[in-house]
């Protein structure tokens, strides 16, 4: 697969604190952005395969939305292990969560995937469970590192008062406004929330006589949407996220933000935004990527607006 590598401008975590602090303070009643030591992410509430986010952090954008729209390209399948080997370290409705050692001989795969189930009722139910496969289809957005402990960006926010409903949009809009297109910033990390948020999960692909999708509205109507409430403490949904402040040189055809989530009790999917304003609380940990690996970019790239 053709792979383009873009070495990102070196930007320290400390440089991100002030613009993000200002953005979160304008959107939430209570907010704090700081550089701190990463907790052990293998424990609750995060349940990740690796300890930290440090050690040659990179992001990889594989495939892309043109592999889904206007018609699913079903032969676009990717191995996360091959990507990791080549790039040094999301597929539709999958939350990749892998760690390895001994040259991939010892693999910890805590990946989950979400699907819809209508077999037991007339309503659409979400099932999120462990996935033993390390393969994905259509597209992936991955953050990879050596999994080392070390400094990370910690963001906490409570009681949304602003118009931006998405936690990750607050981050990328603020970074784009501050750094512009000349200094793109790419982040990867994990966050949890308390309150209610909106997600989508892909159902089975439409039959051939209903393809191709005519427009984005038809594509969005095909997806199933779900609101999940979280109380915190032992009740958590873990959100794994990759986001960019800008597309370097506007030529890489990046998906600007992608967040897939899982819980230990069967909830999960693609995070969109929170609901309920006053009740919402977030806690997230992120690291700055040193490079972007653009793998198997489709020849046709769907235009994306930063504020989409």
TrEMBL record:
A Pfam family the protein falls into: DUF1907
Domain DUF1907: 19-295
Compartment annotation: Nucleus
GO cellular component: nucleus
GO molecular function annotation: hydrolase activity, acting on ester bonds; zinc ion binding
InterPro entries the record matches: C11orf54_DUF1907
CDD domains, per the entry: DUF1907
Keywords: Hydrolase, Metal-binding, Nucleus, Zinc
Main subcellular location: nucleus
Claim: Nucleus is one of the keywords in the record: yes
SUPFAM superfamilies (alphabetical): AF0104/ALDC/Ptd012-like
Record's subunit section: Monomer.
Entry-linked PANTHER family: ESTER HYDROLASE C11ORF54, PTD012 PROTEIN
Protein name stated in the entry: DUF1907 domain-containing protein
Provenance organism: Lithohypha guttulata
């Amino acid at each position: 697969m053709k792979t383009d590598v873009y070495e990102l401008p070196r930007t320290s975590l400390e440089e991100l604190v002030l613009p993000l602090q200002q953005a979160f303070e304008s959107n939430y009643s209570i907010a704090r952005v700081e550089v701190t030591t990463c907790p052990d992410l293998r424990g609750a509430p995060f349940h990740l395969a690796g300890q930290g986010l440090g050690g040659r952090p990179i992001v990889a954008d594989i495939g892309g939305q043109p592999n889904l729209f206007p018609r699913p390209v079903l032969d676009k399948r990717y191995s996360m292990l091959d990507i990791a080997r080549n790039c040094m370290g999301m597929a539709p409705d999958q939350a990749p969560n892998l760690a390895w050692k001994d040259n991939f001989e010892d693999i910890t795969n805590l990946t989950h995937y979400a699907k819809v189930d209508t077999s037991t009722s007339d309503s659409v139910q979400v099932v999120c469970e462990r996935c033993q496969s390390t393969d994905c289809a259509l597209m992936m957005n991955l953050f990879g590192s050596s999994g080392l402990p070390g400094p990370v960006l910690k963001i906490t926010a409570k009681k949304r008062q602003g118009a931006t409903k998405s936690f990750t949009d607050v981050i990328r809009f603020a970074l784009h406004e501050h750094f512009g297109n000349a200094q793109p910033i790419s982040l990867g990390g994990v966050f949890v929330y308390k309150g209610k948020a909106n997600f989508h999960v892909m159902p089975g692909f439409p039959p051939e006589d209903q393809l191709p999708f005519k427009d984005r509205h038809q594509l969005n109507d095909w997806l199933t949407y779900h609101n999940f409430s979280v109380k915190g403490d032992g009740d958590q949904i873990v959100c794994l996220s990759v986001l960019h402040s800008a597309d370097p040189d506007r030529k890489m055809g990046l998906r600007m933000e992608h967040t897939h989530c899982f819980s230990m009790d069967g909830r999960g999917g693609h995070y969109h935004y929170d609901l309920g304003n006053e009740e919402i609380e977030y806690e997230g940990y992120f690291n700055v990527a040193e490079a972007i690996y653009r793998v198997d970019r489709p020849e046709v790239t769907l235009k994306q607006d930063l504020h989409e």
